[in-house]
């Protein structure tokens, strides 16, 4: 029995896709920049079926690319040439919220939006939020240690995961979904899975920590003259009510306005925009207004407390990805530096891109409290030259070549910029211990 026939025997014919038209949506990433051919797309419906797929592929010597909602931006979730794509989108079990522990168990294929709604229905919330909430899945977010909009308050995915169940390349199951807050019995295997990008095992379910739901939110967009002014503002704004700090620039706002047909937030354009959100059990409007009034560098302000008004302000920030993608296939790089050096880095990265691609169009935005910039370069065919210029600049600032999207295949050649030879040797040794045959996501994180 060949591999495809065996997979169909395990999963059913309808969940093993070989037709090119049916495979197509699984073979290209969200940006359109990374694509490849899959031998087949397998869609297991539970942990045991995941194990069956992995056993069959291991015995056939065929590599496997785990894939969640396929919202990745670094080519880590799409095939490179003849692998089996293992889609986790049918692993959609969602347990009852445990209000005593403040935890819930979610299958790897649960979309973030559904998880958040489920938690809020029980009077709690999930601490991570990203713009791709309707498509991104829990398993993919664990695999890339997703961050997003609320890291300043609740931290990234690594801070939310208290247990994980996963299947090794040979089909063995590891991990626990008990969710013990205290457990000192040796190595943290769950922690190793967070950020592993599908190279160690396939995560099938996770036990997640929930956070208190907030009853009230207030959102403001501040107009500023420089990134330095925005960085200085964070020191004043930081406190228990702060839940989001997002930076974007005039060129990005113009792109979003043209794409969505919006007017600007202010009568006159500003060079830099800082979106700030306060959230708490009481109405934080006065707290936010008082904090903003103490910022002497603010040129203009737009404040919203009702849901429609808040969504309108968030549209200027969250519309960036959609507007950029509508313009063409971008070179997208997600990086981070110390927030204290964010203004200096912004100047340096603009110069680096200009030197590497003089005719390109650069759009920056990001999560400023973490020094996390999303670097988007449009109208540029030479992605390698741009990537090298940007990532080399990041390394010069002592930063990270991947803040929240993972390394994937896109950045694997530059891992040496921020990881020493000893550290990369450890990466390879860990990979070999979990996946001796190198079946899982070859070429991701660790170059071939």
Q: How does this model look, in words?
A:
- With 448 residues, the chain is an alpha+beta fold.
- The chain is built from 14 helices and 17 strands.
- The protein has helices spanning 3-11, 20-27, 47-60, 112-121, 138-144, 151-154, 189-193, 227-237, 250-260, 285-293, 307-327, 342-356, 383-396, 421-434, and strands at 16-17, 38-42, 64-67, 83-87, 103-107, 124-125, 161-167, 173-176, 202-209, 211-212, 216-224, 242-249, 272-280, 300-304, 331-336, 361-367, 372-378.
- The protein has a 7-stranded antiparallel sheet, sandwiched between helices.
- A hairpin with a 4-residue loop joins strand 16 and strand 17 (372-378).
- Helix 1 (3-11) runs antiparallel to helix 3 and helix 8 (227-237) packs antiparallel against helix 12 (342-356).
- The longest helix has 21 residues, at 307-327.
- The relative contact order is 0.12.
- The mean pLDDT is 95.
Concise overview:
This protein has 448 residues and is an alpha+beta fold. The protein has helices at residues 3-11, 20-27, 47-60, 112-121, 138-144, 151-154, 189-193, 227-237, 250-260, 285-293, 307-327, 342-356, 383-396, 421-434, and strands spanning 16-17, 38-42, 64-67, 83-87, 103-107, 124-125, 161-167, 173-176, 202-209, 211-212, 216-224, 242-249, 272-280, 300-304, 331-336, 361-367, 372-378.
């Amino acid at each position: 029995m060949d591999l495809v026939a065996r997979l169909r025997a395990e999963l059913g014919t309808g969940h093993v896709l070989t037709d090119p038209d049916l495979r197509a949506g699984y073979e290209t990433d969200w940006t359109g920049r990374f694509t490849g051919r899959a031998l087949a797309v397998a869609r297991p419906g539970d942990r045991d079926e995941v194990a069956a797929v992995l056993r069959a592929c291991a015995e056939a010597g065929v590599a496997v690319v785990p894939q969640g909602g396929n919202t990745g931006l670094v080519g880590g979730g799409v095939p490179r040439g003849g692998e089996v794509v293992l889609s986790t989108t049918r692993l959609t079990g969602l347990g009852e919220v445990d209000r005593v522990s403040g935890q819930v168990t979610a299958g790897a294929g649960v979309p973030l939006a559904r998880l958040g709604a489920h938690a809020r229905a029980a009077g709690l919330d999930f601490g991570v939020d990203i713009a791709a909430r309707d498509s991104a899945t829990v398993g993919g977010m664990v695999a890339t240690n997703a961050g997003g909009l609320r890291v300043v308050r609740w931290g990234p995915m690594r801070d939310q995961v208290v247990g994980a169940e996963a299947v090794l390349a040979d089909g063995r199951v590891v991990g626990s979904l008990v969710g013990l807050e205290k457990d000192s019995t040796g190595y943290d295997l769950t922690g190793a899975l967070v950020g592993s990008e599908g190279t160690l095992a396939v995560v099938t379910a996770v036990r997640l920590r929930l956070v208190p739901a907030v009853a009230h939110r207030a959102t403001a967009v501040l107009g500023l003259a420089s990134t330095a002014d925005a960085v200085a503002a964070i020191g004043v704004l930081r406190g228990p009510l702060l839940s989001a700090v997002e930076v974007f620039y005039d060129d990005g706002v113009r792109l979003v306005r043209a794409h969505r047909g919006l007017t600007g937030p202010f009568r006159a354009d500003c060079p830099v925009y800082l979106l700030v959100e306060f959230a708490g059990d009481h109405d934080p409007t006065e707290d936010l207004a008082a904090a903003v009034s103490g910022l002497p560098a603010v040129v203009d302000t737009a404040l919203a407390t009702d849901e429609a008004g808040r969504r309108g302000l968030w549209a200027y920030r969250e519309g960036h990805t959609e507007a950029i993608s509508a313009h063409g296939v971008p070179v997208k790089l997600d990086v981070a530096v110390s927030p204290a050096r964010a203004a200096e880095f912004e100047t340096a990265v603009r110069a680096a891109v200009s030197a590497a691609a003089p005719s390109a169009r650069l759009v920056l935005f990001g999560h400023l409290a973490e020094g996390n910039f999303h670097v988007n370069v449009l109208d540029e065919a030479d992605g390698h030259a741009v990537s090298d210029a940007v990532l080399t600049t990041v390394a010069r600032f002592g930063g990270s070549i991947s803040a929240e999207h993972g390394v994937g295949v896109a950045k694997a050649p530059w891992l040496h910029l921020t990881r020493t030879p000893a550290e990369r040797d450890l990466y390879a040794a860990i990979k070999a211990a979990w996946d001796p045959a190198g079946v899982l996501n070859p070429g991701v994180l660790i170059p071939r």
